[in-house]
Amino acid sequence: FLGGRRGGRGRKGAAMEGPATSSGALPPDTNETDDLTMEPSDDLGLGPEVPGGTEHPLEHDYDVSNDAQLLRQAWINESLTPEVLMYREDLVDRIRSLIARQEKIVEDYEQDHNQALTRAIRFAEVSRIKFCLRSYLRKRLSKIEAYAIHIYMNEELSSKLSPQELEFAKDYIDAVNRLFKDSILSRLPKDYNDLLHQSMESEAPDMIPEPSLDRHVFVRVLDDLGDIPIDDQNTTFRLQEGDIFAIRYRLIRDFVDSGRVELV
């Protein structure tokens, strides 16, 4: 581990692990992940009050900033983990409803010059939230493309996809299979014309790319996790709320979907 406690104090005697394997490295992605270093507004959402006049009928006490921040963290987690995470269906549905509602408000203010500043603020923030939502969904699709067969054949991983993503994975596998059969596999000897096996002598599929779960990630601990095992010799390491560590993803993967740690 490379770690630190709250307030920047280093941990004495923290173990340093060897470099993670690179066999599961993700393919180059669109430039959305590069924008993770941008400095968004603090809440990435639309506050209940904006300058410019009376409250719109569609406004209410809904906590916009909380869902916007949850979406941003879901995007960061998805971008930094080697495997696909659980699809945040409820959050995505709420964000889509939020976008539709705020776009209606922006449209209603279009002809009202007294609401020009209000409209500009709302339009900018809605655009920011839409960018995060698109980036989150695109990152998931890039992982599905990279490990489509592995995900589709693994019941646990396929259950993390939305119905649309699962259908996409199936269609993608079918398309890749047809492409390879028509262009390459049909011209190879019989014992070597399979997409999943190096040869017919291979009992288990050995040509399916998988993500490297031993890749190191930076995490912030949100809850006291106690002592977690870090090797086969029953060596444990304590993770406490507020700690930030560089750690193998495999060791904390169960805590990511449960929201007890977040990636940074």
Question: What does this entry look like structurally?
Answer:
- This protein has 264 residues and is of the alpha+beta class.
- 41% of the residues lie in helices and 9% in strands.
- It has 7 helices and 6 strands.
- It has helices spanning 64-80, 89-108, 116-146, 148-153, 155-158, 163-183, 249-257, and strands at residues 2-4, 216-221, 226-229, 236-239, 244-248, 261-263.
- The strands form 2 sheets. A 4-stranded antiparallel sheet has the order 1-5-2-6. Strands 3-4 form a two-stranded antiparallel ribbon.
- Strand 3 and strand 4 (236-239) form a beta hairpin.
- Helix 1 (64-80) packs across helix 2 and helix 2 (89-108) packs antiparallel against helix 3 (116-146).
- Residues 7-53 have low confidence and may be disordered.
Short note summarizing the structure:
The chain is an alpha+beta fold and 264 residues long.
Order of helices and strands: EHHHHHHEEEEHE
Helix content: 40-55%
Number of helical segments with 4 or more residues? 7
Give the overall shape: flat
Instruction: Trace the largest sheet across and list its strands.
Output: 1-5-2-6
Please give the number of β-strands.
Answer: 6
Whole-number mean pLDDT: 79
State the secondary-structure class: alpha+beta
Low-confidence stretches: 7-53
Q: Give the biggest beta sheet.
A: 4 strands, antiparallel
Q: Could you give the distance between the termini?
A: 15 Å
**Could you tell me the strand content as a percent range?**
5-15%
Radius of gyration: 23 Å
